Amino acid sequence: MNIEINAKKVVTDFGGMTQTARLLTDNGVTISRDAVDKWRRAKRIPLFHFARLALIAKKRGQRFDIYDYIVEIEQQK
Length: 77
Known about the structure:
- The protein has a two-stranded antiparallel sheet with strand order 1-2.
- The chain starts with a strand and ends with a strand.
- The chain is mainly alpha-helical and 77 residues long.
- The relative contact order is 0.25.
- The mean pLDDT is 94.
- The protein has one domain: Orthogonal Bundle (434 Repressor (Amino-terminal Domain)), CATH 1.10.260.
- It has helices at residues 7-13, 17-26, 33-42, 47-60, and strands at residues 2-5, 70-73.
């Protein structure tokens, strides 16, 4: 079985594409709304950004548990 990160849920939990980009930028990681949208469409978030979001969540007292975002993908036979 393969796994992926539910990038759409991550972005939603941080308030949407614009708010996620703003939070990252305000915390020293300049990123555009379009870049966040690419994560959602690709179903991938670069590890650096994912870790930064975890730190932002901690500062905000926001729940951030990786298990909430992992999705198992069944392999096709």
